[in-house]
Design a protein that fits this description.
It contains 1 helix and 6 strands, in the order ββββββα. By secondary structure, it is mainly β. It has a 6-stranded antiparallel beta barrel with strand order 1-2-3-6-5-4.
């Protein structure tokens, strides 16, 4: 299957919190980020994320076990598929990530590039 990605995908494991908008602040889905690019992320989730749902993803930047900062980025679920008892999903960001609009998330790209 040929992919039509604008940006190169970087593989990076991290925990992310996903909230559907508008959802209670105490009800985020804890998911595992598997890959990222400037247009979106791929995640594994313990519960389904409905296609075309608007979401807010919180991505934390860590050094070792210490959280340095976190950033929220809006997007929408592009696809979601069951894998065993978990779900894989693709989330497209509402705007392309740049150093100026998401400086913390931009650091994730630098870390991901080092993990080639």
């Amino acid at each position: 299957m040929e992919e039509n990605r604008r940006d190169r995908r970087h593989y990076l494991m991290a925990e992310v919190l996903i909230r559907t908008s508008p959802a209670p602040a105490d009800d985020p889905v804890r998911a595992v980020l598997m890959n990222i690019n400037r247009g979106g992320i791929g995640v594994y989730s313990p519960q389904p994320l409905k296609k075309k749902t608007h979401v807010v993803v919180r991505i934390a930047y860590r050094e070792g076990t210490k959280t340095i900062a976190a950033e929220d980025i809006q997007g929408s679920v592009c696809w979601s598929h069951a894998i065993g008892k978990s779900w894989a999903a693709g989330i497209s960001f509402s705007e392309r990530v740049t150093r100026k609009n998401y400086p913390i998330l931009n650091k994730c790209f630098a870390k991901a590039k080092m993990n080639k």
